[in-house]
Amino acid sequence: MDELEEKIERLASMISESKRIVAFTGAGVSTESNIPDFRSSKGVYESIQKEYKQPAERLLSHSYFEAHPEIFFDYLRRFLVFPDALPNDAHKSLAALERIGKLSCVVTQNIDGLHTKAGNKNVCELHGSLYRNYCIKCGEKYDLDFVLSAKDIPRCKKCGGIVRPDVVLYEELLDEDVMEKAANEIINADMLLIMGTSLAVYPAAGFIRYFRGENIVIINRDATPYDGSAKLLIKAKAGETMRAVMNKCKIEF
After folding, report:
1. At the top level of CATH, which class does the domain 3-35+87-127+173-249 belong to?
2. Is the dihedral of CA 238, 240, 243, 245 positive or negative?
3. Is the full-model pTM beyond 0.85?
4. Binding site for nicotinamide: residue ranges?
């Protein structure tokens, strides 16, 4: 048995013994669904720099959205939305763990909606979701199809205001209710299963400090600042790893 197999066995055992798992996920969970991450050579930030000749922190900021909504929505439609993407084995395994009562919540930095598509009911979306959109003037709600079908800047049918995605842009604060819920879920967990995140984006990454237990598991291909705090560290793809773990646990997903 090689080192990876031993770690998969160990994680399967930890899951079997746990009663209240919280998963904390980032962009690396969705790369196996063919959604690019943010900071790799082919990621979201690189595409912004190459196509629009400016840093992502500017184009995806609140002030830039207000000043240049037409460019913001051009980028969103071309590079940020993947409506045909399907949940991979990482998403499906977390949904299965919730169904059998092992997992209490998914706390995610992702805005792609794949945890919900996979079947998870209790999801704290720290950075919001592209699938929820609203008018900035009257608050009327719209789905993603409405935004994608607009020729240029999506406008509210009721008042003509700009319809924007319910996501947290640079210069904006995380939703207080979502933050409070995520913190409480992590505080009450007996395992924190961290997958597909560099743990470098704050304030979201700081949520793992709320965990009071010992069983921190990190599944990520690259190193993170919290590797030394992990009881179990697996440097591999999240979907492939969780498929093997679920097979060991004999849990259908």
Report:
1. alpha beta
2. negative
3. yes
4. 38, 111-112
